[in-house]
Structure formats: structure tokens, C-alpha cells
């Protein structure tokens, strides 16, 4: 992917130097959907970076001032022109508007460079920050799925199912803003 600059951020492919930063936020995922992405060692982080370096669907979000990784954006294309999108950020950087700034640039990239017609995101009903972000970005809530998916288990070993919202946005809506 091409590098994208915003006022304070750089969106780019992952680099080997990102390993320590990636470990910092994937060692203890705060949202259940990222539990399967959990990594525990620097070696795990290096291996994850090696995979992501070659995959344009994972985008590193870095501070422009020092190129340090603070989070990631990702997408999955569904033919012909729909994209499932998501994001994951280091908790240390919450409340500074970095997610909003980077996702705006990400959406513009998907709609204008990749020709997306429709974007959608799944957000757990307990993930209030991502719900608010979707709303600030102009996404509409299109669905609410009860016990939609399980990423973890209860103490007795049975699956713990997540209630999940679906938000979506069309290219024609985004380009009007």
C-alpha cells in the first residue's frame, strides 16, 4: 500500500522495527475479538510482523513525529466491492483522536484507491469507544446480533457469546461529507 500521511499520523505497511510496539498492545488484548491475535513474546511479535509486512490488508498506524506504532487498521475484501474493516489501538494512546484521524484516512483510501462501494464493521456491544467512532465516522448501525460469536469461554468451559453491532457506510455517503 502507499504511505498515507495525516496531520499527526503515518499509515504504512508494517516494519520489523514495529515488533516491540506490537507486543505492547497484543500481549493483553482489551477486546475479546483480538484474543486470537494475542502474542506473548517478542519472537511472536517478530513472526506476526513478518506476515503483516507482506499483507497490504494490515496497515500500521504510527506517530508521524517518531514513526512509533500505536495501532493498526485492517480490512477483508468481499467480492466485488465490499470491505469488512476493523482497528486495534494501544490503550496508551486513547482519547487523543488518533483512531478517528487514522480511520478517516483509511476509509478515504478504501473508497478512492481500492474502489470500495461499501464498508462494514462488527463491534461488540461492550466496546463503547468503537461504537462511538463508527457513529462519528457517519456509519449507520444496521444490525444487532444476539450471541453472535464466541472468542472466549466461561469458567465452566462453555463458549461466551458476544452481542455484536454491525455498522456500515457506502462510498456515495462518504464522498458527500
UniProtKB/TrEMBL annotation:
Molecular function via GO: acyltransferase activity, transferring groups other than amino-acyl groups
InterPro entries associated with the record: Acyl_CoA_acyltransferase, GNAT_dom, N-acetyltransferase
Domain of life assignment: Bacteria
Keyword Transferase carried by entry: yes
Keyword check for Transferase: yes
Domain N-acetyltransferase stretches: 9-158
Keywords: Transferase
PROSITE patterns in the record: GNAT
Protein name: GCN5 family acetyltransferase
Amino acid at each position: 500500500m502507499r504511505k498515507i500521511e495525516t496531520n499527526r499520523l503515518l499509515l504504512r505497511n508494517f516494519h520489523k522495527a514495529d515488533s516491540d510496539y506490537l507486543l505492547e498492545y497484543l500481549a493483553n488484548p482489551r477486546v475479546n475479538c483480538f484474543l486470537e491475535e494475542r502474542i506473548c513474546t517478542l519472537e511472536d511479535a517478530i513472526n506476526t510482523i513478518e506476515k503483516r509486512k507482506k499483507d497490504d490488508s494490515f496497515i500500521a498506524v504510527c506517530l508521524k513525529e517518531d514513526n512509533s506504532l500505536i495501532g493498526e487498521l485492517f480490512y477483508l475484501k468481499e467480492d466485488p466491492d465490499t470491505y469488512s474493516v476493523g482497528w486495534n489501538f494501544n490503550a496508551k494512546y486513547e482519547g487523543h483522536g488518533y483512531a478517528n484521524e487514522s480511520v478517516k484516512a483509511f476509509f478515504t483510501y478504501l473508497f478512492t484507491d481500492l474502489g470500495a462501494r461499501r464498508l462494514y464493521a462488527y463491534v461488540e456491544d461492550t466496546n463503547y469507544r468503537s461504537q462511538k467512532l463508527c457513529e462519528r465516522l457517519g456509519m449507520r448501525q444496521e444490525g444487532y446480533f444476539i450471541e453472535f460469536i464466541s472468542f472466549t469461554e466461561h469458567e465452566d468451559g462453555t463458549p461466551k457469546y458476544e452481542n455484536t453491532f454491525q455498522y456500515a457506510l457506502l462510498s456515495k455517503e462518504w464522498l458527500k461529507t
